[in-house]
Amino acid sequence: MMWLLVGVASGVGTLCRRNLTALLNKRKHFTHSFLATMIINISGSFLLGVFANNYSSWWAYPLLGAGLMGGYTTFSTFNVELVQLMRQKKLSLFVIHMVVTYSLGLIFVALGYWL
Question: pTM for the complete prediction?
Answer without folding.
Answer: 0.89
